Automatic annotation (TrEMBL):
Domain Fe2OG dioxygenase: 476-581
Keyword set, alphabetical order: Dioxygenase, Iron, Membrane, Metal-binding, Oxidoreductase, Transmembrane, Transmembrane helix, Vitamin C
Gene Ontology MF: a single term: iron ion binding
Cofactor (UniProt): L-ascorbate
PANTHER family cross-referenced by the UniProt entry: FE2OG DIOXYGENASE DOMAIN-CONTAINING PROTEIN, PROLYL 4-HYDROXYLASE ALPHA SUBUNIT
Lineage: Eukaryota, Metazoa, Spiralia, Lophotrochozoa, Mollusca
TM regions (residue ranges): 51-69
Name of the protein in its database record: Fe2OG dioxygenase domain-containing protein
UniProt region (Disordered), positions on chain: 1-30, 237-318
InterPro entries (alphabetical): Oxoglu/Fe-dep_dioxygenase_dom, P4HA-like, Pro_4_hyd_alph, Pro_4_hyd_alph_FE2OG_OXY
Coiled-coil portions: none
Composition bias, Basic residues: 292-303
Start-end of Basic and acidic residues biased regions: 237-291, 304-318
Gene Ontology CC terms: endoplasmic reticulum
């Protein structure tokens, strides 16, 4: 080593010694070289030995794979699914993942959507029983509550009535609520009866100013007194005489249990489709146009004793809430985490649709090809169509966010007719049944159709929400209803955000998943357009798009604005589900149907907000959005 050192560092002091010993040094160098070569050879031999070892182990592993393939395959898939595999693409470059395997899904036209089974021809009955089940599950035999919509903390309501109670109350209410219509477009009239707090005032419903309750009942069961509040609606009714007279030989309205049960009421925040930046305005307009001539009577004193249980804001005190609401733990969904998944043999990677415009929002749009199989798409369409057809036997009730909107719609179809607030059912934004019938003759076809099903009402719902969870990270417990919407030719949907701008509410829609259930060829319209991002997606059978509407901090992102382009050729059908930033108790539970406007069971509704082509939608279910007082107060909930 010393020499090497010397050679490395030659210096005047050792130069002579080096020259003299040159020979010996050479010999030593050679020896050293040989030793090194030997070492290298050894190493090489060792390496070969290792290769044999590796080969042995690989063979062993292959054998193991062959033996345990099914398990391993599953493992690999799971692993693979965990790796984010994102192809960054633009809309012009959307790639399709090949899919040879289309496994038959459980869904077919006799599937369990809307709570049906094969044997169950009567979907409505079954739907009632689904609702009943929810209610019963929610709280065994007991009671109460509503006021939910005003409650500070729960933001929910629950009405938990046992089946027997429901039945009894149904009979009571059936006997007590009557509807009259005048010959023209008269208002509906409900009458009071017995202990129900429905008061009659010149043939119109009128309520205590600060009660906001339509009906109320007390039950005595053994030594326990239970209060059952039905239809505790956030409505203030007007005693406005419509001047058109009423028909006192009222036809009885058959109200089913469904219309009586008020179980979970915060309804899923927004209509789902339209509430957007314009809400504040719309609400004001509604109030101005419909609620101007309010005259409220002072009846229904029974409510007074409820007040003791309420805090200053008129909310039910916490102790009044069922335990399960009090114990409800909200979960937060702050962002999307797209991942590649496998479903029924299909490999489904996420692809990001890159914004074509510069923007500084958090909004990102992802696309999955063949997220649903052909069979799933076709099954959903069949179920939707059948449901729309069944409910179309009755004319829908039409609701408008304001009288101005109604006027604009009429103008659009060139109908010259004077409309006044009296054409609306009091306390609601809906016109009465007979006028709705006329209107629908004029406006018919000018809307899209939405049907909904809820978690637990279909096997598909569970399959779907799980797939969504794997692919996007969106948690089922933060998801609302599943909504299928069809757009006939000529119909689109106006520009909107799915969250509500300028309103701080964590119970808002953080993300949307939308699946196209059928293909529209190029040029056929129907694209989902994100104008602020410069991107759009074309309807293609099975394709899903998913995007966030809110920032991870919980703010509604205005740049998530989107619209459904008008369908030019064919028909568009989609499945949508909205996920909420903060979950709440009634999320994902079928809401009770509010009793107003008075209508026959299963009457669909059409809701139109702010006039714009494509602002009307037909719905198979009711929520509370058309109730003026609900509309007024919904954002004051904490
Ligand atoms: O149909 C579409 O493409 C979009 C529908 C939509 O955004 C909605 O219903 O909220
Ligand atoms: Fe939307």
């Amino acid at each position: 080593m010393g020499k090497i050192k010397n050679r490395e560092k030659p210096g005047p002091d050792n130069h002579v010694e080096k020259t003299t010993d040159a020979k010996a040094e050479n010999t030593r160098d050679k020896e050293e070289l040989e030793i090194r070569l030997q070492r290298l050879e050894n190493l090489h031999n060792q390496g070969s030995d290792n290769i044999y070892k590796y080969l042995f182990f690989i063979t062993l592993a292959v054998l193991l794979v062959a033996l345990t393939y099914p398990k391993l395959e599953h493992f690999l898939k799971t692993k693979d699914a965990e790796n984010v595999d994102v192809k960054r693409i633009t809309v012009d470059n959307v790639q399709t993942v090949n899919n040879e395997i289309h496994k038959r899904n459980e869904i077919d036209d006799t599937g369990e959507y809307f709570g049906r089974t094969d044997e169950d021809d009567d979907g409505d009955e079954h739907r009632d029983s689904v609702l009943q089940r929810n209610v019963t599950e929610a709280k065994e035999t007991t009671i109460i509550k509503e006021e939910n919509v005003f409650h500070r903390k729960s933001h929910v309501s629950i009405e938990a009535l046992s089946a027997e109670k429901n039945k009894k109350l149904e009979t009571d209410v059936k006997a007590s609520i009557k509807k009259t219509e005048d010959t023209e477009r008269g208002a509906h009239v409900s009458k009071k009866n017995g202990d129900l707090m429905i008061d009659e005032d010149d043939g119109m419903i009128s309520l205590d100013d600060d009660i906001n309750e339509v009906s109320y009942k007390e039950n005595n069961e053994g030594d326990r007194t239970e209060k059952v509040i039905l239809h505790e609606l956030p409505i203030k009714m007007d005693g406005v005489d419509d001047g058109k007279g009423t028909n006192d030989d009222a036809e009885e309205v058959k109200l089913t249990r469904k219309t009586l049960v008020d179980d979970t009421q915060k309804v899923e925040g927004k209509e789902g489709d339209k509430e957007s930046k314009t809400l504040g305005k719309a609400e004001k307009k509604t109030k101005d146009s419909i609620g101007k001539s309010k005259k409220t009577t002072n009846k229904g004193k029974k409510q007074k004793k409820e007040d003791n249980d309420k805090d200053v804001e008129g909310n039910l005190a916490d102790k009044e809430l069922p335990e399960e609401i009090r114990n409800f733990k909200a979960s937060y969904q702050r962002e999307l985490t797209p991942k590649k998944i496998f479903a029924d043999g299909r490999r489904i990677p996420p692809m990001e649709l890159l914004a074509q415009k510069e923007h500084n929002s958090s909004v990102r749009v992802w696309l999955f090809e063949e997220f649903l199989s052909n069979e799933e798409c076709e099954g959903l369409i069949r179920v939707h169509d059948r449901h729309v057809q069944e409910l179309s036997k009755d004319n829908p009730i039409l609701c408008f966010d304001s009288i101005a909107t109604l006027r604009k719609h009429l103008k659009n179809v060139k109908i010259q007719i004077n409309v006044s607030p009296r054409d609306f059912t009091q306390g609601t934004t809906c016109v009465n049944a007979s006028f709705s019938g006329q209107l629908q003759d004029w406006l018919k076809g000018n809307w899209s159709y939405s049907t909904a099903f809820y978690p637990g009402e279909s096997r598909f719902a569970a399959v779907f929400e799980d797939r969504v969870k794997q692919a996007t990270g969106l948690m089922p417990e933060n998801g609302g209803k599943f909504q299928i919407t069809s757009y006939p030719t000529g119909i689109g949907y106006k520009s909107h955000t799915d969250c509500t701008e300028n309103v701080l509410d964590e119970r808002d829609r953080v993300a949307t998943i939308l699946v196209y259930l059928d293909t529209i060829e190029e040029g056929g319209g129907g694209e989902t357009d994100f104008p602020e991002l410069g991107i759009w997606a074309r309807p293609r059978k099975g394709r899903a798009i998913v995007w966030n509407n809110m920032s991870p901090g919980g703010l509604c992102e205005p740049l998530s604005v989107h619209s459904a382009n008008k369908v030019i050729k064919g028909r568009k059908v989609i499945l949508q589900r909205w996920y909420y930033y903060k979950s709440f108790f009634s999320l994902g539970k079928r809401p009770p149907e509010p009793p107003l406007p008075v209508r026959v069971p299963n009457t669909p509704r059409v809701s139109c907000d702010e006039y714009e082509n494509g602002s009307c939608r037909w719905y198979d279910e009711w929520n509370f959005e058309h109730l003026i007082e609900y509309e007024r107060r919904k954002y004051t909930l904490v």
